Amino acid sequence: MTDWVLRLIDAGGYWGIFALMVIENIFPPIPSELIMGIGGIRVGQGRMEMGWLLFAGTVGTTVGNYFWYLVGHILGFGRLKPLVDRYGRWATLEWKDVEALDHIFGKYGQIVVFVFRFMPAFRTMISLPAGLFRMGHVRFLLWTSGGALIWNIILAYAGYILGQNFRDIDKYVGPVATACVVGAVLFYLWRLATWKPRG
C-alpha cells in the first residue's frame, strides 16, 4: 500500500494528497497517518510546502467526512423510527436510545465530532450520526476541519522530522487499525448476543 500511496502523491502532488484524504474518509482502509506522513517527508525533501500540504489534507478530510454527513442528513431523523422499530434488534437499539443520542448530539455534537477525529476507524463513522441527528452544516464542517487540521499537523510534522524512517509506520499503523476494527466487531457481536430490549 505504501508504494501505491507514494506514486499517487508524487504524480498528483497536492491534488494527490487531497484525493487520497477524500478516499480515506469514504473508504477507511487507507490510513491518513501514511498519507500525511509521506507528505511531511516530501516537505523535508523540499518537494512540497507544509502550508499547502496541510490545506490539501484538511480539505480532503473534510470533504470525505461531509459525504457521510450528507448521507445521514438525507436519510434524516424522521425516517429512522420505522427502521429502528423493525431492525433495532440488529443495531441493539431502541427508540429511547436514539432519542438519547439525538439529545447528546444536540448538546455536545461539536465536541463528539472533534474528539472522534483522533480515533482510528471511528473518525469517519461519526459523520453519519452527525447528519442523522441534524447537527448544523456549518458547525459540523468547522469542528471536523478543526480536528482534522490538528491531526494532520501532528502527522505531517512526524513525517517531516522522522524522514524516510516514517515509511516504517505502515508496519505498525496497519495492525493497530485492524485491531481496532476487529475489537469493534467483537464488541458488536457480544452486544448482539447479550442485548435484551427494555420494552
From TrEMBL:
It is found in: Cell membrane. InterPro entries: DedA_domain, VTT_dom. It is a multi-pass membrane protein. Coiled coil: none annotated. Residues 30-160 form the VTT domain. Keywords: Cell membrane, Membrane, Transmembrane, Transmembrane helix. GO terms for cellular component: plasma membrane. It comes from the Bacteria. It holds the Pfam family VTT_dom. The chain crosses the membrane at residues 12-30, 51-71, 111-133, 140-160, 172-190. The keyword Membrane applies. This is DedA-family protein. It comes from Sphingobium indicum (strain DSM 16413 / CCM 7287 / MTCC 6362 / UT26 / NBRC 101211 / UT26S) (Sphingobium japonicum). The lineage of its organism: Bacteria, Pseudomonadati, Pseudomonadota, Alphaproteobacteria, Sphingomonadales.
